Amino acid sequence: MADNVRELRPKPPDTEKITINLGYVDLGQVDLMVQEGFYSNRTDFIRTAIRNQLERHGDVVKQSTARKSLDLGLRNYTRQDLEAAQRAGEMLHINVLGLATIDHDVTPDLARATIASVSVLGALHATPAVKAALADRTR
Asked: 121: helix, coil or strand?
């Protein structure tokens, strides 16, 4: 029976947790909006407010994304991607607005040999060892 059991790689979360400090009056107003049924909870209120601000400034985001040559969304770097870059003698410049992931089987040495710079607006998921190896190349 144990022969047909495979361990699956855990799925990364779809969101990143952030913490904010909010004044008591502002927090009370958020709670009032939730209590009155405008929002299901505090998180729903905050997400809606953030989305509204992002939509309001959508043109600026699009222009900046294009100007800075950012990959928008999710970008995954596999061991095979990095090994191919190494064979080609290329260095990668990771520029992502969203989520950048470097697979768990990428070694710190391979990452340093193939990644010249890392700029992520959002979240970078990689092993602690790879993050440490790229710390001086991350802005």
From this structure: strand
Q: Torsion-angle region of residue 87: left (phi > 0), alpha (psi -120 to 50) or beta? A: alpha
Which tens digits make up the pLDDT trace of 23-34? 999 999 999 999
Residues contacting 57, CB < 8 A, separation 6+: none
List, for residues 28-75, the tens digit of each pLDDT value. 999 999 999 999 999 999 999 999 999 999 999 899 988 888 998 999
Q: Are 78 and 55 within 8 A, CB to CB? A: no
CB burial of 80-110 (b: ≥16 within 10 Å; e: otherwise) equals eebeebeeeeeebebbbbebbbbbeebebeb
Q: How far apart are CA 139 and CA 127, in angstroms?
A: 17
